[in-house]
Amino acid sequence: MRTHSTRRLLGALAVASALALTATACGDSDSDAADSSPKDVKAALEKGGKVTVWAWEPTLKKVAADFEKKYPEVDVELVNAGTGDKQYTALQNAMAAGSGAPDVAQVEYYALGQFAIAKSVEDLAPYGAKKYDKTFTPGPWNAVTQDKAVYALPMDSGPMAFFYNKKVFDKHGVKVPTTWDEYVEAARTLHKADPKIFITNDTGDAGATTSLIWQAGGRPYKADGTNVGVAFDDAGTKKYTATWQKLLDEKLVAPISSWSDAWYKGLADGSLATLSIGAWMPANLTSGVPAASGDWRVAPLPQWTKGDRTSAENGGSSLAVPKAAKNKELAYAFTQFATTGAGASSRVAEGAFPATRADLESKPFLDTPFPYFGGQKANQVFAESARNVGADWSYLPYQVYANSVFNDTAGKAYVSSTTLSDGLKAWQDASVKYGKDQGFTLD
């Protein structure tokens, strides 16, 4: 196996020695590529060949090695072609050129639609992928399917949770908020007690914003083939903007960019008291904020309506097979192995957060103590969150572009007198204009 520059994607994976998740029952014979695939896939595995995989996620290195060991006639070449927009641009360019495209590509859920609508990725249903409809949790499965088509297989997921600095909360006598109204009150109490403390940071982030709108019940996007809708004026979105505007107006969120040095410092010294983010976050706290080990805990997201248990996804990615793949059968076999078979369990053991029900429901996974969180069995919180994700969320088939103009539109609310509602309307207008320019029909 040849591995090209595999750097860690921020927010991707846990430090194995810290989390030490136990491999679970996901890798059974029903998920074995040779045992459960159509005959042409079995024949391709026996014949062998080369599979090129574009991905940034480091646990795939072990998956590739295990796959080659199981199928010695197959050679897997892992290539890091960049992350996010960089890889997607390279992928689109290779597809347009008619050469150089990989056999398998890691694609985040929010970006998959643009490749599906362009028919540049294979529908995996004819290969047998439909049978996995009960294998994955609702959020990830919904993200890779449309009607009867399966455009990728989920690789991981990001059900959201509430990470809070217990040491800071205890010092100032603040209870863990169970609603967003309580969250605002906690922000006020903490900042009044110590003006250096902020409930969280926020300089405007498309993914975080849409995830919280998702949890609030907002559904701003509609996508049915080339018919698209964008409207940030539904009740769920208004719940989010009303709450978040209070935080912005009262300067209760720190104007610090996530993943910056100042952000890590704030998480370490307690001046950033909470994060509402995906279940992949423990890795980054463990490796990036070691000094605060023992200070942090995990709880369910605060709710927009008291007594609810609703959650949303924040992050996560899939493995897709480009139409331009040279060996689609081998590509599907690797994709299947990495996401549903033994490869999925080995990735969980190395710290990836699973999209598979079997792993999320397994006792070893649920009972794993997290030393960083004072021994808390945090996976129990994450697993419950995954079960409570609304499955009817849609992204635009050009979400990559939409996210790229977030800071120029909605982001104005964080640096000027523009309200968040007006900023989202500007984001909506920019997204609608782009869609029309690209030939989409906008409702």
Short précis:
The chain is an alpha/beta fold. It has helices spanning 16-19, 33-36, 39-47, 60-70, 85-97, 109-117, 138-144, 166-171, 180-193, 206-215, 235-249, 261-269, 281-288, 328-340, 342-349, 357-361, 363-366, 379-387, 399-404, 420-437; strands at residues 2-3, 49-54, 74-79, 104-108, 145-146, 149-150, 153-154, 160-165, 200-201, 221-224, 227-230, 253-254, 274-278, 296-299, 317-320, 441-442. Residues 1-31 have low confidence and may be disordered.
Can you tell me about this structure?
With 443 residues, the protein is an alpha/beta fold. Helices cover 41% and strands 13% of the residues. It has helices at residues 16-19, 33-36, 39-47, 60-70, 85-97, 109-117, 138-144, 166-171, 180-193, 206-215, 235-249, 261-269, 281-288, 328-340, 342-349, 357-361, 363-366, 379-387, 399-404, 420-437, and strands spanning 2-3, 49-54, 74-79, 104-108, 145-146, 149-150, 153-154, 160-165, 200-201, 221-224, 227-230, 253-254, 274-278, 296-299, 317-320, 441-442.
Question: What fraction of the residues are assigned to beta strands by DSSP?
Answer: 5-15%
Count of DSSP helices? Answer: 20
Class per helix and strand makeup:
alpha/beta
Mean pLDDT: 90
Annotation keywords:
single chain, 443 residues, alpha/beta, D-Maltodextrin-Binding Protein, domain 2, three-stranded antiparallel sheet, 20 helices, disordered N terminus
What layout of secondary structure does this protein have?
Elements: E1 2-3, H1 16-19, H2 33-36, H3 39-47, E2 49-54, H4 60-70, E3 74-79, H5 85-97, E4 104-108, H6 109-117, H7 138-144, E5 145-146, E6 149-150, E7 153-154, E8 160-165, H8 166-171, H9 180-193, E9 200-201, H10 206-215, E10 221-224, E11 227-230, H11 235-249, E12 253-254, H12 261-269, E13 274-278, H13 281-288, E14 296-299, E15 317-320, H14 328-340, H15 342-349, H16 357-361, H17 363-366, H18 379-387, H19 399-404, H20 420-437, E16 441-442
Parallel strand pairs: 1-3, 2-3, 2-4, 9-12, 11-16
Antiparallel strand pairs: 4-15, 5-6, 7-15, 8-13, 8-14, 10-11
